[in-house]
Amino acid sequence: MPVDPLKLKTIEDDDDVSVADSEESIEDKKQEINTDFTFSVDGGADWDTKKYQWDFTNIKQSAKQGQKATLDEVINSKKVDLSGLDEDEEEEEDEEEVREGLSILEKDDPEDIVKEKRKAEFFDDTVIETTAEQSESFTSFSLSRPILKAIAAMGFVKPTDIQAKSIPLALQGRDICGSAVTGSGKTAAFMIPILERLLFRPRTVPAIRVLVLVPTRELGAQCHSVATNLSKFSTIQICLCVGGLSQKLQEAELRKKPDIVIATPGRLIDHIHNSPSFSLDEIEILVIDEADRILEDGFKAELNEIIKNTPVKRQTMLFSATMTDNVDELIKLSLKNPVRLFVDNNQSMTSKLVQEFIRVRQHKEESRPAILAALCSRTYQSETLIFFRSKAAAHHMKIVFGLLGLSAAELHGNLTQFQRLEALENFRDKKVNFLLATDLASRGLDISGIKTVINYDMPANYSVYVHRCGRTARGDAGGRAVSLVGEQDRLILKLALKNSRDAVKHRVVPSKVIAKFETVLEGLKDTIKEIYVEEKQEKLISNAEMQVQKAQNMILHEKEIKSRPAKVWFQTAEETKAAKAKPVDPNAPARSKTDGMSRKKKRLYFARQEEKKEQAQQQIAAKSAKSASKQKKLTQFSTKDSGKQQSKKRNLFDAEISRKKRK
Ligand SMILES: Nc1ncnc2c1ncn2[C@@H]1O[C@H](COP(=O)(O)OP(=O)(O)OP(=O)(O)O)[C@@H](O)[C@H]1O
């Protein structure tokens, strides 16, 4: 297969690192290649004992700290005593199989056949077998010593499946669409071959050759940490360009032309337009991590702008646990003969994950805070990550948890970058037992030791559910995902059941326990109000202080400030607004019925669609039952039985979630 001759050399079997770059000085070479090192399979640790942990110490230094957190002090002074609340009632846990009746989710759309045909034409689906050696050791990829040494230092002994499959192809310069379950090592799957190829870069003229796009700042920081560790025995330079960190420092780093830039789309575009001399003209490898997220509507305009600025002749690699293979979405990335590497069934969960569901009845929606408080006080008391749909809900619960004496950090977009990184570190280092987060934390974050993920409310779609749950049960570790499921979440529940590999559980929090916690929370209402008032006052004071500081700066440095060039953004304010309102691409596929709907409306819409499908199926079943009864005229249904049928129809949700099979 002809591969585009990229400037970055592709490693062939007979290539030798020591003669690769005649321009490098002997000192450089010594630094890069330590010939004493030999890769040993016993040298590293396995999943459980691995040494590597991300480190944000340097990154935090360039993040603005913002106002000092006084909230914790206020909450602590108002804490309540919960002792005696969890005396007698034991939480029930019912094991059950709830998979029956899921056939309605089977695809029977004739359009699928056309789609499959297009995929077959678009992807290079030649089966690429991984050799036994490639699955057993990193040495089989002919990697250079500095890379092997770093891999060993990180405690990696054997490549994971996605690594074994993607490393040889990426080394050949092939375009890749890669998917494997959460926590399966996708970052190293693209970073190892990139670093290996960079060892062979021409050194005389520095250039930004690799761009890694990530959807969130935290994921960027984590990816930067992995790349820095994997390249620590080389001279490869890596720059992190994400929002919330000092733009000035980033500009200075970019001027030095680092080999790799890891960026979030917004900050990258800011640099393209506002940092003199920065461009993506020399990019030879583009990686889009969490690609399905970056291909979503929210990032569409930004992605188009970035792609427009990168050379067409490049290697492109896309990775995600829920990777799209929708050809329409991928075509605009001008992939060349891409290989589809779907290691697990795309959308599937790791087999180490236990999923539990707690039903929240429609008239009991307001019990969610009490259910969560009960779960976290009694059952999941540490190493628990809790997801909320909104920043306000996560923050509210942070106050509630504080008052209940449950140590928690919050992670969402209303915090400064410094606070966000610190929250992550505090949770990772077990300084707090709970992390209360929005979907900002749902993708990619790798925090070892998370035992439980709780979905306080279900996300808008199933792939977000997969990513949220994927924060636990990573690598070889086990984990549990506990979800509070309301009437409107039936579709996601069904998909979760359909795609789960093992039994799922139905957890019942005893109503007496919920009632007790409801009473406690009711008693806290006034205190919570007081805290909000204090918080608001604190914010007003700090805003006023900021204004004063700004005014002082203006007085002192007016000339310099006014002479700064005005910032440029690739869209006008109107265009940004319009982009949010309608698809930017005139050739984009027609809007789906749910486009523009709020998440709540979307969920209701999907639930209603599901209901309609079910009703249609039930009608068909009823019709065939009727015709069957006609043939056997003597058979009479008792009124009791038909009553049962009726109630079964009405309570299909009940049947799904609470059909019990005690073990
Ligand atoms: N070959 C390996 N051996 C042991 N540990 C590994 C190996 N490769 C990666 N890891 C570790 O596995 C963990 C998960 O890796 P990573 O975050 O890259 O997963 P991922 O597949 O990108 O997950 P997600 O889909 O959630 O983003 C990390 O802690 C990483 O250090």
TrEMBL record:
Helicase ATP-binding domain ranges (all copies): 167-341
GO annotation (BP), single: rRNA processing
Annotated SUPFAM superfamilies: P-loop containing nucleoside triphosphate hydrolases
Biased composition annotated in UniProt, kind: Acidic residues: 12-26, 84-98
Domain Helicase C-terminal: 352-539
Composition bias, Basic and acidic residues: 1-11, 651-663
Family stated for the protein in its record: Belongs to the DEAD box helicase family. DDX27/DRS1 subfamily.
Annotated gene: DRS1
UniProt lineage: Eukaryota, Fungi, Fungi incertae sedis, Chytridiomycota, Chytridiomycota incertae sedis
Keywords on record: ATP-binding, Helicase, Hydrolase, Nucleotide-binding, Nucleus, Ribosome biogenesis, RNA-binding
Sequence ranges assigned to domain DEAD-box RNA helicase Q in this UniProt record: 136-164
CC per GO annotation: cytosol; nucleolus
Annotated InterPro entries: DEAD/DEAH_box_helicase_dom (IPR011545), DEAD_box_RNA_helicase (IPR050079), Helicase_ATP-bd (IPR014001), Helicase_C-like (IPR001650), P-loop_NTPase (IPR027417), RNA-helicase_DEAD-box_CS (IPR000629), RNA_helicase_DEAD_Q_motif (IPR014014)
Pfam families reported in the protein's UniProt record: DEAD (PF00270), Helicase_C (PF00271)
Name by which UniProt lists this protein: ATP-dependent RNA helicase DRS1
